[in-house]
Amino acid sequence: MPNLSNSPRPGVLARYGALLDLPPHTIPVTLQEGDTPLIPMPRLAEELGGGFELFVKFEGMNPTGSFKDRGMTVAISEAFGRGARSVICASTGNTAASAAAYAARAGMRAVVIIPEGKVAAGKLAGAVAYGAEVIQIEGSFDDALSLVVQISQHHPIALVNSLNPYRLEGQKTAAFEICDQLGTAPDWLCLPVGNAGNITSYWMGFRQYHTLKGTGLPRILGVQAAGSAPLVLGHPVEHPETVATAIRIGKPARGEQALEAAEQSQGRIIAVTDEEILHMQRRLAASGVWVEPASAAGLAGLARQLREGQLELSELRGKRVVGICTGHGLKDPEIIAHSMPAPRRLPARLAALEDALLGAA
Amino acid sequence: MPNLSNSPRPGVLARYGALLDLPPHTIPVTLQEGDTPLIPMPRLAEELGGGFELFVKFEGMNPTGSFKDRGMTVAISEAFGRGARSVICASTGNTAASAAAYAARAGMRAVVIIPEGKVAAGKLAGAVAYGAEVIQIEGSFDDALSLVVQISQHHPIALVNSLNPYRLEGQKTAAFEICDQLGTAPDWLCLPVGNAGNITSYWMGFRQYHTLKGTGLPRILGVQAAGSAPLVLGHPVEHPETVATAIRIGKPARGEQALEAAEQSQGRIIAVTDEEILHMQRRLAASGVWVEPASAAGLAGLARQLREGQLELSELRGKRVVGICTGHGLKDPEIIAHSMPAPRRLPARLAALEDALLGAA
C-alpha cells in the first residue's frame, strides 16, 4: 500500500483527528477531503480599497465540490465504526451529495429525503450519481428534517444532517488549516451563513487552535442573503428566497450559536442582496475562482461594509482577511447558463476573426 | 504574504517547474492546481478479480474540475511572461474553461472559438463564468482549430490548444506526482484517449522521472470510445459519436505519439462501448468517486481486457494499477439527470417512511 500519510492529501481525520471529539470506535472513511487552497486575491483587495491582504479559502475543491465533505467524512466514519449500515439526511443539495459519496465509500446505504415541490434535477444529480435513494415527501423541508430525526431515533439509521455533532467536529478542520496555512488566524473571516453550522464550527475551531497553539482569533463577518436573513431580522423567515440556494434557510439550526460566534469574535452578521452576491461571484471568477452564488456572500458582505463605512479601510490596514467560498461554481452552472448571451457568430475566415478581435482590441 | 511554498498545494510550477522545458521569461500564474488525490479502490479491484492494487488518480479535483489545469497553468505562465495579453483556443469543453480561468487569473483576455451546431450551455458555462468571449464560427471544429492557429501566427494572441508544447510540459507533472505518491511508477496506467495529448504527456513524464530517479515505467492502456476510435481503426473518424464528450475526437492531434507511447511501453490502445463507459462511471461512483463519462474509459478498458482475457489476472498479481480520471462528474450532471427516475413519493409520516425503508431493507 502507498504511504498515504505522506500523501499531500491524507484526509482531515488523518491530519487532524486527534483534535476532534470523536468516540474510539470511529473508523476513517475518506475521499482525501480538505487541504483546500488558500488563494491570494491581490487584485480584488485593490478593488476594495487596498492596504490589506485578501485570500479565498476555496472549499469547492473538496471531493464532492463543497465544504460539506469535511464534516461528512467524520460523521460517516463515526457511524460506520459503530456498525450503522444506513445513513439518512434531509437535503436537496450539497449535504445530499456529500452524504451519498461517503456512504458509497463505506459501502453503506444512503437515503435522501427531499421536500415537496419542484426539484432541480441538476442539484440532485450528485446524490443520485453516488447511488443514494431519493424519497420525496408530501411536506416541507422542516417536515423532512423532522422525519429523518425521528427515524434515526427509532432505528439503526445514522442521521447525517448537521444536527449530527460530528459534522461540526469535522468542519472545525477548515479553521485549523487556515491557521496552518497563514501561520496564525486571519484578522477577519468572512463567510456565508445559512443553517449556521459552518460559522459555529469555524468559531469552535479557531478557539481550540488558539488555546492549543496561540494562533489568535479572527473577527467574524457572517453574511446572509437579504431574502433569507433570519439572524439579521431576528425571526424565522417562512418563505426564504435567494439565488444563493445553499443558504436559502429560514430557520437556522444553529442560529443562537452563530449569533454568539459573531458577538464573541467582535464581528457581526449582516445581509446582502442577490445582486451583490452575483456581482461578487463575477468578481471572484474574474480572478480565476468560480464559486456557487452562496459562496460569494461572505466577500459581498465585506464589500458592502467597506462601501458603507461600517468597516473602515484604515481598520484593515496591514491586516489579513479570509473569505470562505463553500462550493464550486460547477455546483450551479444554471445560474450562468440562464443569463448567458448567445455567442456572436462569424464566417469561418481569418479576416472575419481579425476584424472581430482586433477591431475591438 | 503566506509561505505558499509550505502550502499543501503550491501549484505544479512551484513544485515541478525545474523539470519542465520552459523559457526563462515564464512567470507563474497559478490557481494551486495539481496535488490531486490518488485514491485506493480496493472494492473495485476485488470486483475485477482481485490480487492487485488499484488506484484512481482523480484529476477532476483540479481548480476548474479537469486535468487541463496542469497544462494550462504552464501555457498561460509562458504566454503571460512573454507579454501576451490575449489567449485563444478552439474548444467547447474543459480546455475552454481552463483557458478562461487562468487567463482571468493573469488579467488576460480569453477568446474561445466554438464550431457551428448546437452548443450545450452547461458545457460552456465555465468558460463564460470566468469571463471568456465566446465566438461561434460557421464551420467545423477543425475549421475552428485552423483559425485559431492562423490568428496566433499573425498576431500577439497566444494559442493555448494542446498544439502549444507547454501544455504537454505541464501535463507531465501528473506522472511525476503518481511516482511521488506511490514511490515508483505503477505497473499499468489506464487512461482515456481523445486528442492524445494526455497519453503523450504521461509517457514523456514517466520516462523523464525514470531517467532522473529510476522510478520505472508503466505499461500504458489507452482507451478510446468505440464511436470515436481513430487510433484503433487506423483512420480518422469523420463524425465521432460517444457520450464521453471529452474524448469525442475523430482526428487526434497527437495520434502518432499516442501509438508510440502504447508500443514503447508494451501497452496497447483499445476501444470500449458507451455502455461499458457508463457502467464503469457507476462503479466508480459506487466507491465515492464521481467522474465525467470520458474519465471512466480507462478503467472500462481494464475491465474489458480482464473479461476477454487479453490481460490475465495472473499477470496483475501483486501489481499496482492506476486509472486516470480526467474530469469531475460535476462537469456533466446532465448524463445523470437525464436518466434519473422520478423520486418515490411518500406521505410525510414516520410509518410511511419506515415501511418504505425497513420493508425493503
TrEMBL record, chains A, B:
Pyridoxal 5'-phosphate binds at residues 94, 194-198, 326. InterPro entries: Rhodanese-like_dom (IPR001763), Ser/Thr_Dehydratase (IPR050147), Ser/Thr_deHydtase_PyrdxlP-BS (IPR000634), Thr_synthase-like (IPR004450), Thr_Synthase_bac/arc (IPR026260), TrpB-like_PALP (IPR001926), TrpB-like_PALP_sf (IPR036052). SUPFAM superfamilies: Tryptophan synthase beta subunit-like PLP-dependent enzymes. Keywords: Amino-acid biosynthesis, Lyase, Pyridoxal phosphate, Threonine biosynthesis. One of its GO terms (biological process) is threonine biosynthetic process. It comes from Anaerolinea thermolimosa. This is Threonine synthase. Residues 87-130 form the Rhodanese domain.
